[in-house]
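[audit] Reproducing an earlier prediction to check determinism. Same input, same settings, fresh worker. If the tokens differ from the archived copy the diff job will pick it up downstream; this log only records the rerun itself.
[audit] input (316 residues):
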Amino acid sequence: MTHESPHHLSNLTTARLICADSLTWLQTQSKDRIGADFGGESSDRGFDLVYIDPPFNTGRRQIGPRGGYEDSWPTSEAYIEWLQQVCQRIRYLLSQRGSLFVHVDPRESHYVKVMLDKLFGRASFQNEIVWAYDYGGRTHKRWPAKHDIIFWYSLDPDAYTFNRLDEVKIPYIARKKPGSYQDVVGKFPTDVWWNSICQPNGPERTGYPTQKPVAILDRIVKVHSNPGDRVLDCFAGSGTTGEAALVNDRHVTLVDRNPEAIVHCRDRLISRAGVVWDEPLLTAPAEWLGTDMRGIRPARVSLVAPAGKPAELVTG
């Protein structure tokens, strides 16, 4: 089901980068404020697409070469209660055709699904997307766990954005049978997405722990929003959602309580999305606490990244 964006697409897309506790920040927001922040004149205010990749309650600290965060709650019940408060506030901030994507792992996914059903209503559940990958260590005691779960809920069960685009199609796996039809572009993906994680030494890797591949977010942004729409990620981490949104001409708000993540996002959106920030470039992570930065990305910006070299900004 496809709906055109009611928001005006100017020659600029905007980015907000906020260093704050996600739940605390969400509790201060309203649809009117969101509309005003993005210069929206439409009565349909709020976020059109929200993707969150919250901590998974692994019981340990997640550490990477360039930062880390705590990922532990006293009990599973305490974790679900906290996540419910977050999702409840997000639901309140969705536009009339808005969607929420919640990325979790199999250990908590069943409890998260029940919580979201109660919050949105079972009719608003659209998909359980399985992101499958085949990389990393393997246990010898049980089947190795090599997938995450992404739940998709729409605010309105019958009104949401779903763009069946040729550019997200994937190659056929099965050999073409004689006399059968196969689209030369490929097939539209199912709810099982095969995509490798970010390789430890790959060009996409930023050094922030639990970074998600931009290909996953690129697909979500293209299919579930339109140019000019408003995208939110309030567990911004390495900034993958920000990159995917901006290069596809969506406005984006990124929130994270970790100053190291905010510095990460700032640098990534400069080098990979061409964002020009309107604030001084702070250096020490502690200086970022409470910061609300705003930036713009000119519409006619492309990034050229020769193999093995950083991206260069090209405008014209």
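[audit] rerun output stored. Observation attached for the diff report: The chain has one domain: 12-315.
[audit] end
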